[in-house]
Write a structure and sequence with these properties.
Layout (H helix, E strand, L loop, with lengths): L1 H10 L13 H10 L4 E6 L6 E9 L2 E4 L3 E8 L17 E4 L6 H14 L3 E2 L11 E7 L5 E7 L4 E2 L3 E8 L4
Parallel strand pairs: 5-6, 5-7
Antiparallel strand pairs: 1-2, 2-3, 2-4, 4-10, 7-8, 8-9, 8-10
């Protein structure tokens, strides 16, 4: 979990990573206010599996769930991609490059991530401008499972992490 969090903090600009430890949601909200941020992502273990990614917005003194919750099935880390990028490389600007027009779930997830992280989505037809360092793509395999990948621009060399999503939930249970 820590490696995945560290890798994500390298590919998302302006991301602040803290170790949660035993902090409650109220404690996390207090930390967010201290950093003057209004959105929080929590990556945690789930049912002894790899984990889940939950998205929250700061509403007053509380964290409010910002759907969806993404349940992870696998993860490959930046170190697994060899020498494509050094550990010190920090991405300064990122864009989501749309891969599929037909898949409604992918489009909905792309739009959510773009809004939540305040990054643009480019359509399939648009060339990626050279002022971006990396592109995030959400791919879907034959069994309709999503995989999030990160690639350096301009060559679109995969740099990791690669995150396999088993499913998304769009409502609070």
């Amino acid at each position: 979990m820590r490696t995945l969090c560290r890798d994500l903090s390298c590919v998302f600009p302006n991301l602040i990573r803290i170790n949660r430890g035993k902090l409650s949601l109220e404690g996390i909200a207090e930390e967010a206010r201290g950093f003057d941020v209004d959105r929080v992502t929590i990556i945690s273990r789930w049912e002894k599996g790899l984990g889940k990614i939950e998205f929250f917005e700061l509403a007053g003194d509380d964290l409010r769930n910002a759907l969806p919750t993404a349940y992870l099935r696998e993860a490959r880390f930046r170190r697994d991609f060899g020498q494509q990028v050094s550990k010190e490389t920090k991405i300064e600007s990122i864009v989501i490059t749309a891969v599929s027009k037909e898949n409604f779930d992918v489009k909905k997830f792309e739009d959510f991530l773009a809004s939540f992280f305040n990054i643009p989505v480019l359509s399939l037809e648009e060339p990626v401008p050279s002022n971006y360092d990396a592109a995030m793509q959400i791919l879907v395999d034959h069994s309709k499972r999503m995989t999030i990948t990160f690639r350096l621009i301009p060559g679109l060399t995969e740099i990791g992490p690669r995150i396999g999503i088993s499913h998304l939930t769009w409502k609070v249970t």
